[in-house]
Amino acid sequence: MKRALVSVSDKKNLVPFVSKLVEHGFEIISTGGTKHVLEEAGINTISVETVTGFPEILDGRVKTLNPFIHGGLLGRRDLPEHVETMQKLHINPIDLVCVNLYPFKETIEKPDVDLETAIENIDIGGPSMLRSAAKNFHDVTVVVDAADYDLVIKELDEQGATSIKTRAKLSAKVFRHTAAYDALIADYLSKQAEVEAPEKLTLTYELEDTMRYGENSHQKAWFYRDALPKEYSITNAKQLHGKQLSYNNIKDADAAIRIAREFSEPTVVALKHMNPCGIGRAEQIEQAWDRAYEADSISIFGGVIVLNRKVDLKTAEKMHKLFLEIIIAPAFDDQAYTILAKKKNLRLLTLDFAKKDEPTKKEVVSVMGGLLVQEQDVLQEDPNNWTVVTKKAPTESQLQTLLFAWKTVKHTKSNAIVIANQKRTLGIGAGQPNRIDSTKIAVKHALDSIKDDAVLASDAFFPMDDCVQYAAEHGIKAIVQPGGSIRDKDSIAMADKYGIAMVTTGIRHFRH
């Protein structure tokens, strides 16, 4: 008689699956809670203790780690010496294994979990059985995912056994599953032990979606989510309306919510191709929208919009007039949603902004042949710690405007220059190979709006005094920059020449 070993934590659809195995002549070996559920359903089972001749010990930590189990899984039916050894030692073959693991992930996701509880939810016997069965997939069918129950039963119904192709796929799935399981454990225990730079980086992600295409239409792409994603993340945003997010949509949306995380007052962020094209803030979200739109009414076309307050009808009516790719907000009131949803392709997403200040994870960027890993740039800076380097000091109002520009420039591709007033960004120069070109672009966008309250932020130091001179000649009154150039004195002297107030932060914010 064929034998199946069944031991699962997730018992969804278990009874119908095992009932079909019994119909196909399988004898069922089981343990603990799984055995109890099956017998309550009227399915006869054999206990693991009966097979091993050895009781469960150490509070269940050891029950299946036994030659009568693993010999039955690993013994090759095509090798006479294996068959002879199994017969000599009275080890019966096990033909199918259905196992899923202790809920380690669900355990560590609980906010109050302690180390002892986490450790007790590290499965040892389960992965061992899965790996043994998966290694011997030529002879053994291994099922780790309830989603595969129907496939196994379908093949049993149609051909009396699973195909070698199916067993090979199920085997590979097992090793992906146990690798991901071990990666979570390794990551958790490394954090507990305060290991900052492990000699092996073990990451695990879960397939969220298959993209229509990647960055360009000829590229295939897939979207994977962190196994333990942060709540304030694009993976946890809820899509209410619109077509599937594209590869570029997801990258832009991620960049936009990173910027929105900087602001607590009602703020609207408009983003295009990974760079902000306008940021507006006000006492009401509608006015913040007006200011973000005014910042660059051309580039906002086809952009991604993030609002950190609920979208009301008046704001929705204004946004509805434009072609926009995505709108992300904490919520949409009913009337706002109704009008925006008239555009069938417009993606409307909600996100929990109350979680924006939760601890951040390290970010990973791929390069050919490797990965770069770094902490996210979430440094919160206090203008009181900045250094006034010019004869003229900024006013308190200018200092707060400089902070607004500084928060924006840190999310703009370097070389980055941002011109702003208290209400909104006025001009943004991004991604140029030299800083003077970024300055000229920012000034060009801002030119008609530069008044006495306009300030400029530079993400890194000025290598020469030309940027300061150009800004001064076009009406800029205050500048914030990191400092640290060997020619700082030239830039400071130029600022003094034009009566500009300049502060240095000692911190740069490159964004590549």
Summarize the structure.
By secondary structure, the chain is α/β, with parallel strands linked by helices. The chain has helices at residues 14-23, 32-40, 48-52, 67-74, 80-88, 104-108, 115-120, 125-135, 149-159, 164-192, 247-260, 285-295, 313-320, 334-340, 396-409, 435-446, 466-473, 488-498, and strands spanning 2-7, 26-30, 46-47, 96-99, 141-143, 205-210, 222-226, 238-241, 267-272, 275-281, 304-307, 326-329, 347-350, 363-367, 370-374, 387-388, 417-420, 425-429, 455-458, 478-481, 501-504.
Structure description:
The structure is a single chain. This protein has 512 residues and is α/β, with parallel strands linked by helices. The chain is built from 18 helices and 21 strands. It has helices spanning 14-23, 32-40, 48-52, 67-74, 80-88, 104-108, 115-120, 125-135, 149-159, 164-192, 247-260, 285-295, 313-320, 334-340, 396-409, 435-446, 466-473, 488-498; strands at residues 2-7, 26-30, 46-47, 96-99, 141-143, 205-210, 222-226, 238-241, 267-272, 275-281, 304-307, 326-329, 347-350, 363-367, 370-374, 387-388, 417-420, 425-429, 455-458, 478-481, 501-504. The strands form five sheets. Strands 8-13-12-11-9-10 form a six-stranded mixed β-sheet. The longest helix is centred in the middle third of the chain and has 29 residues, at 164-192. The mean pLDDT is 94.
